[in-house]
Please model this.
Amino acid sequence: MKQEMIIVLDFGGQYNQLIARRVRECSVYCEVRPYTMSLAEIQELAPKGIIFTGGPNSVYEEASPHYKKEIFELGIPILGICYGSQLMAYTLGGRVETAPVSEYGHTKVHVDESDALFAGVTADTVCWMSHTDYIAKAPEGFQVTATTPVCPVAAMSCPEKKLYATQFHPEVLHTAEGQTMLRNFVCEICGCSGDWKMDSFVETTIRTLREKIGGGRVLCALSGGVDSSVAAVLLSKAVGKQLTCVFVDHGLLRKNEGDEVEAIFGPEGPYELNFVRVNAAQRYYERLKGVTEPEQKRKIIGEEFIRIFEEEARKIGAVDFLVQGTIYPDVIESGQGKSAVIKSHHNVGGLPDVVDFKEIVEPLRMLFKDEVRQAGLELGIPAQLVYRQPFPGPGLGIRIIGEVTEEKVHIVQDADAIYREEVAKAGIAPKLGQYFAALTNMRSVGVMGDFRTYDYAVVLRAVNTSDFMTAETAELPWKVLAKVSSRIVNEVKGVNRVLYDCTGKPPATIEFE
Ligand code: XMP
Model:
């Protein structure tokens, strides 16, 4: 039986990814597709429903994205949101104008509870608005199903044709009853049974990958991070030994991390994959000798990774497919509907130029981070790996200010391990966005026993953030900080001072370099 699916047709709005996610929260599979997708392609996919997203344009301008009128005749239910609602009205003969007053933010909306979209929604409810144009007149055959003092058509519907539209954004959490509206659309109007679960995603993906890859050979650069790990396990379940994972241990990983990754993915682990661990620590320390400039350090670390990957790939021989752990936010970055190759270069730093492969495989490109984590748990990947906090590609190389040496790597590894252990013990880890220890380039005078010391200062950082673009300093309990500080100076040789970074982002960044 074909899987039930809703398509989100992307007209360039900022909440597109959220819509797909909210639909999946209704246990219905959902994918975002560009509005350039043809009618024939849509029919081929046979979705149970289509959602038109918002977008920054005005429908009455010729250059704005439009869609053929025939889409409304397919008999597939459609929900238009914001720009999508205006597009529906405009295409079907309604009138769209610049609103006399723009509406932004929380807005009281009066809805018609007898409309199928608003079943179970309170008559006067709060919705999230963000528009300058509005539907001044609904097309013939439509009824107005919601209004605000500014918006004569805050929502409209034509139940016979299963067409629905809202000027506001039901996908945004600020729309208090938005999820009820989306559930009404997906389950009641489109008639989806809501039987999709992450395990169905895992099963279907494994099956599709198997069909696609056939007897081909697959290569994956495994970092031990959540995304590449989940992608590797999916592939290994699909094609077993046809997959080879290359894990470059650059000697800039957290304490014991290399061994932990190997324990899971290596020959002793539960997965049947060809695992190649390249211990390149000395090679990295050599290349980083005397280098203090942050960008230069980053470049060397990235370049060396590519060189090592090339060497390993040559040993393996011809490869048909390259696996990437690209997830939805990465897809957005590269622009919807554009070739994934741009992003793959970005992710793996130019690998495709040298590795002889036919195609890039990106099994997670439709998922959000927390959905990837759910898939990881579904695949039996240990929770400690699934819930790892983000760790930058250049690793400790950018958490050691100034020159990187093996001695400094050990100092920061030990300090960081103590910090993570105490934060975990205090039970506050789930509340923090990211936290780690870094090594300053500063040495200062201290006293230990009866002796003068002249040692390094370790700096602790902890931030709260939802998107990592901005961040606030986390207010760690003093007891935890005191314990960590005392343990670090006592247990880590070469450190006599511990500082706490109280800077947000901006003006600082999360990492130090
Ligand atoms: P910044 O330091 O820019 O970090 O505030 C924001 C987030 O990105 C992570 N980060 C990186 N991740 N490669 C990565 O994969 C990198 O070069 C890199 N630099 C920073 C950082 O850990 C934080 O989560």
